[in-house]
Amino acid sequence: VDIANIIIAKFIGKVISQEKLQQIVNNALNFEIPIENIVNNDYICYLDRGPTCSFKDFGARMLARIMEHFLEVDDKNITILTATSGDTGGAVAQAFYKMSRIKVVVLYPKNEISDLQRKQMTTLGENITAFGINGKFDDCQKLVKTAFADKELNHINLSSANSINFGRLIPQTLYYFWGYSRITDEKHEKVIFSVPSGNFGNLTGGLIAKKMGLPIERFISAVNENNEFPSFLRTGVYTKVDPSINCISNAMK
């Protein structure tokens, strides 16, 4: 929580009081982040202890509470439109649940998510609406992008809770700083982070942390069969996996 206060304040500390920020952080990050030593200098940082068992709880919960605060200050309402391959939808739905100034609409590929992920999105009600789409995650993203480009929808004040929203990414730097502080003894000691990756929002949080000065030597990124980005790094040619391949790790698309 102390680390989160310091980092988040670097970005919004001039427009929000320290007391309010402390309240937001305490409310958003009200779960543990266990770190387990596996062997020698290898550790696992568990990011699945939030309410929807996904690392996306970090970004979604912090974003929701910050947005709620500024909407109250400005006396405004918004509609969150987000696409999900599984984890984002549940995390966003839970994070924004019952926030009176925010409506949430989630689009998901109805045949490519788990039962648990579906229930996390579709059973809350209140200000949360989820639609199962006959298609792939990419189709959900296309619908969201089309909506954002439609000027006739400006009156409903659309916003996003996907990783295109920088407010989602900044909280995803926090566990890199936290993990580093737990496992290193020497100042400026460099570490390597291994990150399961789909859309690379998690990894982007780590890259931002490194840019902020965290001594990270390098990242190891693991993907499933939707391997267009590693292929791009190897060949220099971006070839989209289209349609995306449905894998056991369904949120990694």
From TrEMBL:
**The keyword Ubl conjugation belongs to this UniProt entry's keyword annotation:** no
Q: Which residues form the Tryptophan synthase beta chain-like PALP domain?
A: 48-244
Name the InterPro entries on file: Thr_synthase-like (IPR004450), Threonine_Synthase (IPR051166), TrpB-like_PALP (IPR001926), TrpB-like_PALP_sf (IPR036052)
- SUPFAM superfamilies, alphabetically? Tryptophan synthase beta subunit-like PLP-dependent enzymes
Q: State its cofactor.
A: pyridoxal 5'-phosphate
Pfam families linked to this entry: PALP (PF00291)
- Kindly give the Gene3D superfamilies that the UniProt entry links to this protein: 3.40.50.1100
Q: Which of UniProt's keywords are assigned here?
A: Pyridoxal phosphate
- Family listed: Belongs to the threonine synthase family.
Q: Which NCBIfam families match?
A: thrC
The name on file for this protein is Tryptophan synthase beta chain-like PALP domain-containing protein
